[in-house]
Amino acid sequence: HVFYFNRYECHLHALLYFQVLLVTWAAACLALTTFYDYTTRDALTAASSSAGLFLAGAYGSLLVYRVFLNPLNRLPRPWLARVSSFYWSSRLGKMDSYLQLQAMHKQYGPIVRIGSGDLSVIYPECIDLAYGPDAKAMKSSFYDQELPLRSMQTMRSKAAHGQRRKIWAPAFSDKALRAYETKIESYNDKYVRRVTESIGTPVNASNWFNLYSFDVMGSLAFGKDYHMLESGERPPALELLKEGLGVLAFYIPTWAFRLLLAIPGLASSFHAFVKFCVDELDWRVKHAAEIDEKGGKDILSWLLKSYEGVEKPQADLMLQADTRLIIIAGSPDSSDITATTLSALFFFLAQDPSQVQTLRNELRPLTEGRKWSDVDIRQAPHLNGAINEALRMYPPVSSAFPRLTAPEGMRIGDTWIPGNTTIRAPQYVMGRDEASYEDAEKFVPERWYSKPHMVKRKEAFAPFSVGPMGCIGKNLALTELRTLTARLVLEFDVQLAPGQEKVIRMRDHITVDAGDIYLVFTKA
Ligand code: HEM
């Protein structure tokens, strides 16, 4: 433990360690019976007690280190958090990591230890120190969960990530976004049609936002229409994945997660999803000529440019993983990322008709009597303020992606954080912290333009993360959010359906889903 496990990252080899132990134990039994005349029973007892003593030694050393010697012990924490990171997982039975973090910060202060080597930090300066352009911290072992599958987002090396990001960048340039907007508009039309069909009756608006965001992403990623908004159904692989993703809600250590993935049958839904993405990529590559002929570039057409001359780009593991990343980033299966924000925003608007009226008054002069697009409403302050409020109060990445402090450690405020510590800056807790926002529990879009005193620490707001590994799809997501919101508030009034709770109970599985939100739309 002292010379190996406590020094190196070992999370990739848990299965191997287990196998080596098992093989050594079996070999010892065999050797004792073959060469030393042990009876089978005595050999089993001797080998098992040696293995037991070895494990007791290794785990005993680990326990002594964690309970008495770990420099993190001086930081505020529940006692059990110093013993194991499973302590944190054990609190997450309700898939509410964001609420558990909030409760712990309330009890222990702005820095709290949530596992043997894990901290949660809500000081606003942590955003720049851990995620910003000059951050020395790197992505933690969390990003190795799916190895050997590695997408741009899970690349831990800054240099390798930077290179891959250069390949992605043109797909999110202004020029590319303008082309995508035509496709987004057609799905905005479909959403408005669905609302029109059910005017005056309660609808599961969050489910529709999910279907909408996947339809958009399918079209932008593969140039393919999944017709989910029309059919109301997701492809079976996505349904399966939704079930399989439950395990992410427990934030179990990477070594344990990888062990679970290795158990045949347990990760079948994950593998079905991987296959779905590979099949879709294969389809996309085979239909490239046809899609190009129809015009209107999609995200993959940009990524595929760097594979020109490669015979079977779909066989590249990294392209397969990147394809999955696009689907996950915009789809209803795991993340509901854009959909969560739309759901939260309309949940707030439905409780306050004056908000809808303010938005309408702002948007009418910008849109009336002409064919408008995102560029016409991009600067609308109340619209942007309302979207920011939805992102602040129900951030789609609520508990934050973890980072590992550099070996030399990091100072946050007055607190010294040792090297190789995993830290996270949870947006949900930070978004509701009175130290950063006045009336933090209130939905006040004006705080982002006419009442700046209500944002005390602007740097606390980072729903898309920041720096070179921050969200590359931010502008695309904002285009979707602004244009669909504008279409809906210009045409409809909205209120909560009878019986709809006045709180969103998000389920947090790294990204969150907002659950069902029933709304009633009426003609404006
Ligand atoms: C409201 C909507 C969205 C939010 C709040 C959001 C948030 C985030 C966050 C916090 C990260 C950083 C992840 C990390 O540190 O590991 C991220 C990365 C990323 N997002 Fe988004 N995202 C949104 C929408 C989208 C959309 C629509 C796309 C389109 C494909 C997208 C594509 C990506 C990609 C590719 C990355 C990885 C970037 C990299 O590793 O360089 N996101 N997003």
From TrEMBL:
Subcellular location: Membrane
Pathway annotation from the record: Mycotoxin biosynthesis
GO molecular function, one term: monooxygenase activity
Transmembrane segments: 16-36, 43-68
GO biological-process terms attached to the record: verruculogen biosynthetic process
Cofactor section: heme
Domain of life: Eukaryota
Keywords: Heme, Iron, Membrane, Metal-binding, Monooxygenase, Oxidoreductase, Signal, Transmembrane, Transmembrane helix
CDD domains: CYP67-like
Main subcellular location: membrane
SUPFAM superfamilies, per database record: Cytochrome P450
Record keyword tRNA processing present: no
GO CC entries: membrane
InterPro entries in UniProt: Cyt_P450, Cyt_P450_E_grp-I, Cyt_P450_sf, Cytochrome_P450_monoxygenase
Keyword Oxidoreductase: yes
Pfam families noted in UniProt: p450
UniProt-annotated binding residues for heme: C471
Family: Belongs to the cytochrome P450 family.
PANTHER family: CYTOCHROME P450 (PTHR24305), L-ORNITHINE-N5-MONOOXYGENASE (EUROFUNG) (PTHR24305:SF112)
Identification of the protein by name: Uncharacterized protein
Species for this entry: Friedmanniomyces endolithicus
